[in-house]
Amino acid sequence: MERHVAAPNEIPFDLAIKTAEKFFSEHNIARKDIDFLIFCSLIRERQAPTTACLLQNKLGLSTNIGAIDVPMGCSGYIYSLALAKSLIYGGIAKNILILAGDTTTKFLHPEDHTLRFLIGDGMTATSVQYTSEENINSFVLGNDGAGAESLIIKGSNPRETITPEKDIETTAMPYGKLIMDNADVLSFALKVVPQMVNELLQKEHLAMKDIDLFIFHQASRLVLETLCKKMNIAEEKFFVNIQHLGNTSSATIPIAIADAITAERAKKGDKIVIAGFGIGLSWGSTIITL
Amino acid sequence: MREFIQKLEAEFEDIPKGTLTPSTKLKDIEGWGSMHALIVLALADTEYNVALKGEELKKAESIQDLFDLIQQKKASK
Does A33 map to a domain? Predict the structure, then answer.
């Protein structure tokens, strides 16, 4: 199991600058053409101004752009795409840059070996542009705040009573501490993911066999293997790369899409179901056509 | 019950085959940990179509308890 960890002082803002610069240098996308920036991450540069606004300046983007933060985790990429699609359909923007990812390891207690084994850091850049074809299809989205305690950043709310327990060394963990009830999160994933994918397929009048590849948020090996089994998805249609990166929060889906293309598991014209689920509890899914 | 134990043993790669019996206490199984409880939860879902809660699992002390819990949930569906 491999994963990447950001430097002690490195936060998603820093990774976003590096990722966007690499993106502009490697792809035929001019920064002057970007007309909307979505920054999706749980850790923002500060409370205000928005990190997206700071990134506009750092990246030398036009000042005539919209820029917002989407402070979400594992489901955040799907929500960013939903937002990008509606901005395009609403005639508000034509050339959107999504920077999605996190440095979730900042939330991990040094002795939390279970989560340290699972979590990695990562950042991604996605360009969403206006075309005459509909390549991002329907969405199914859901949220259930009643499940908040199953997966939560403790010590990140100033109104929270801080108990001076070893468990919550908030002073040593300025971003707060990620707490996860593994059993609750597994039950949650096994319940909502099959439901939302079914609903999505019904919306699009498609069957499981019409889908070329399923790319789910790379939550954990057990979650992925159980979902694959429960949903009767053939292994060759189910993409897993968690062994190389760990769980990188909102970055897992875009990284997996890129890896699937590189590995020739996905090609132009393929229909791919992408599904995010996690902290919130929050979930979302859509079908993209490559 | 035999089938249940076989399924459990197939999933628990680190536990030697033939060592589990209905009366085996979970805490006595060498290396038993939260990961095994999660595997039971996943197995209940995929093999028995039963959604267990973390707290229900925590109450189970033996293999028999796990089996009964799944049967009970299945019957009340």
Answer: yes
